[in-house]
């Protein structure tokens, strides 16, 4: 994280679930778990109903623009639901952890597993949180 990291907002439910996930995976995937925890530490946590649909949450389908001008549409999911061929990105990846809490128009720098630095900008976000919450139960 740098001082230029954007302000992020996370709902209480996602905050609790993601904190537990990061703590549970800290031994096996420490770099990503540490990055996710640093993102959670700097987040403003709000009641779920106060988090706008244009904020990236677990279960959000979003479109972002890469630093090369490419547009990609993905859904942010828990590891068990990840499937890159279907555009389902795990929160326990560097890009997944970078996406959580961002709002439309915000950009963030992140580092890929190969060490390359990247920047992405959120173009659109559509949260299907209620359906996602029901499916997660």
Automatic annotation (TrEMBL):
GO BP term, example: regulation of DNA-templated transcription elongation
Domain Regulator of nucleoside diphosphate kinase N-terminal per the UniProt entry, residue ranges: 6-45
GO molecular function, one term: DNA binding
Pfam families given in the database record: GreA_GreB, Rnk_N
Domain Transcription elongation factor GreA/GreB C-terminal, chain residue ranges per copy: 54-125
Keyword terms, alphabetized: Kinase, Transferase
NCBIfam families: PRK05753.1
Protein name: Nucleoside diphosphate kinase regulator
């Amino acid at each position: 994280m740098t001082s230029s990291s954007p302000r992020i907002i996370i709902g209480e439910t996602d905050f609790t679930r993601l904190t537990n996930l990061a703590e549970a995976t800290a031994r096996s995937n420490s770099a990503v778990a540490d990055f996710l925890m640093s993102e959670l530490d700097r987040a403003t946590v709000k009641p779920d109903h106060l988090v706008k649909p244009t904020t990236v949450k677990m279960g959000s389908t979003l479109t972002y623009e890469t630093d090369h001008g490419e547009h990609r549409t993905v859904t942010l999911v828990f590891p068990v639901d990840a499937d890159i061929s279907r555009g389902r990105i795990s929160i326990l990846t560097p890009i997944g952890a970078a996406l959580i809490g961002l709002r439309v128009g915000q950009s963030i720098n992140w580092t890929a597993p190969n060490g390359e630095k990247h920047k992405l900008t959120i173009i659109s976000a559509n949260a299907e949180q209620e359906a996602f919450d029901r499916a997660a139960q």
